Amino acid sequence: xxxxxxxxxxxxxxxxxxxxxxxxxxxxxxxxxxxxxxxxxxxxxxxxxxxxxxxxxxxxxxxxxxxxxxxxxxxxxxxxxxxxxxxxxxxxxxxxxxxxxxxxxxxxxxxxxxxxxxxxxxxxxxxxxxxxxxxxxxxxxxxxxxxxxxxxxxxxxxxxxxxxxxxxxxxxxxxxxxxxxxxxxxxxxxxxxxxxxxxxxxxxxxxxxxxxxxxxxxxxxxxxxxxxxxxxxxxxxxxxxxxxxxxxxxxxxxxxxxxxxxxxxxxxxxxxxxxxxxxxxxxxxxxxxxxxxxxxxxxxxxxxxxxxxxxxxxxxxxxxxxxxxxxxxxxxxxxxxxxxxxxxxxxxxxxxxxxxxxxxxxxxxxxxxxxxxxxxxxxxxxxxxxxxxxxxxxxxxxxxxxxxxxxxxxx
Amino acid sequence: xxxxxxxxxxxxxxxxxxxxxxxxxxxxxxxxxxxxxxxxxxxxxxxxxxxxxxxxxxxxxxxxxxxxxxxxxxxxxxxxxxxxxxxxxxxxxxxxxxxxxxxxxxxxxxxxxxxxxxxxxxxxxxxxxxxxxxxxxxxxxxxxxxxxxxxxxxxxxxxxxxxxxxxxxxxxxxxxxxxxxxxxxxxxxxxxxxxxxxxxxxxxxxxxxxxxxxxxxxxxxxxxxxxxxxxxxxxxxxxxxxxxxxxxxxxxxxxxxxxxxxxxxxxxxxxxxxxxxxxxxxxxxxxxxxxxxxxxxxxxxxxxxxxxxxxxxxxxxxxxxxxxxxxxxxxxxxxxxxxxxxxxxxxxxxxxxxxxxxxxxxxxxxxxxxxxxxxxxxxxxxxxxxxxxxxxxxxxxxxxxxxxxxxxxxx
Lengths: 411, 411
Known about the structure:
The structure is a homodimer of 411-residue chains.
Chain A: E1 5-7, E2 18-23, E3 35-50, H1 58-67, E4 71-83, H2 90-107, E5 117-124, H3 131-143, H4 149-158, E6 167-175, E7 178-187, E8 200-205, H5 211-223, E9 240-245, H6 256-277, E10 285-291, H7 297-306, H8 308-315, H9 321-329, E11 340-344, E12 347-351, E13 354-355, H10 360-367, E14 371-378, E15 391-396, H11 400-407
Parallel strand pairs in A: 4-5, 8-9, 10-14
Antiparallel strand pairs in A: 1-6, 2-3, 3-4, 3-9, 6-7, 7-8, 10-15, 11-12, 11-14, 12-13
Helix pairs in contact in A: 2-3, 5-6, 7-9
């Protein structure tokens, strides 16, 4: 299937009317930019999806409040890296609000009554923000705002914590001849903590779309992208996906919605895969794909993707179909092993209740790839039945480095 | 609280009327005994608890059928190590029944109609049993049967796969002056597979007890012992706990039930801890203890115990309270972090929503122990309320060796 969209440069600055800036304030020890600001020239519609962890940071509360009812007055996202601003007492809430107020004041044309600034944090939990440093960096940050590829690149890098590579993407598609753009940056490489944690994605678009349309599109897309991603099964206190839609393309037709959803899904799936591939200590992206899955098949895919035994086998290029089958078996989802086929890196290793006579060395060689696919096909008793939609889930392998990074973090 | 029982030697042979034997048949490559037989001189009441994994071995099916209705005619447990007899087609079922028939025949006084032999397997899944070798070893096995400490020791060793140490225990307690004994052997060191997997426990007692009393006691005990054990969250195809009660002590009074349950709980908890301590690559036993836990607190304890981030922090002696809090937070169980205290190796690190001013080096030193306790206390809003019963869960840390063992298993 040909894609209906093309990639463009600039990530969050690719859509019209979005600027970005970064600065080093001193939140993190290493002298790497740690504050990132994304601003829309005009008030934007916003939607968000947030961590379900009941222990969560002030920024999660902050954004949930601002987005509780469809909000079309959002102007900015401010993100700090190095401090999660979480579990640090009432002072954390005050600091979060202070930052919003300061950004509103610096941007001048932002009405503070609109509660127009969203916040995000990622880093160590339980620590207080160095507010003096943050405050004195904010005017420089705002002064640097620019719509440029360079700024977008700096933004993708400044939100990183333990990530090894920046994650960014932008697409353009046409609606009745008029171009619309969607851009995004993301971070996350396994919840290397709460200490240095968190999956963040910030998405901008110049499509004109109402909050009541944007919100369900984002939910559907996240369900098929970031929510299909698991590095170690841990859910951070600060995870969030935010979308700002500022309407600057002047495209507002209903025709645009399907293309937009398709583009957003592509972007979010690509970013999710980038996050998995950059998982702590990862040597490969592992895709668990279920063909013709039973009801609640997502749970089978996730249980396989989260099994430490499956993940260490992927690291060791071990064609260990048994571990995959066993994880499926304890997922809690009903299926018949007698109607199951398991393929490892394209090789059938288990068919209808029994292993095939596969050559272990051949499969082992095939598993030595940076892009390993574990496929489970659930055969239908009824040959004429239409196949149910496939399910995919992304993770990475489990290596010595995962243990090293996570065991030695505090030292 | 003084224990009402004393430890005795001999594990499964400690109770009157139980014999054991082992032999090397050639199921496993290494020349280590791989068949274990436990026999009661007279028909015994039996009860069992089995894996909930819907993918399971023939022995699980075998025993479930024999124990479906209270069975008081059980004479033997035959266990092989090295082959799980699972996912290997219809031939696996036939072999399983063949072994039962052969044991019945060799023991002579066993009526095959009673379906009196329980089976257990642990090892590689998807492979056929070498039945010629097994059959020719069975008569030697039966000829070796003996009630002795030596045989009991051999049995504890012969059921091991990747375990590093045998796990066995026996207790004696008095009921109105008459002694009753309970003995047990167990194996399991993390589900290093399905390939070399499985938690097995075989328990014998000379108490006279009916199946309708024994069954619920075993369920309660397993819920507070083996079911509080997690090494990597994976549930094997072959897990089982079996109890045989042959009545040879002639103690049958109802007075005995409470003492028996207490002794059984002690044995099963000790064995569960031994399994956790012997987890693959483990350097320490980790106990997650919840004081005054909320409803469904077991889920909080298990989520913490299964978090790879918590387990790597334990390995690295990292006082990372955040990972513990976050795991509790995504367990799905409601609690208020503002009413929570977290203690690591006896040190308070988090109190009512905020970290304490603990000295990381001091806590780090305290964590360098083979017996690490993570304690969460849930404070009551109502100071006068009675504390709810504490919950415990056992696991081990997550080390480089876990990855090494599991990544290189197939090679």
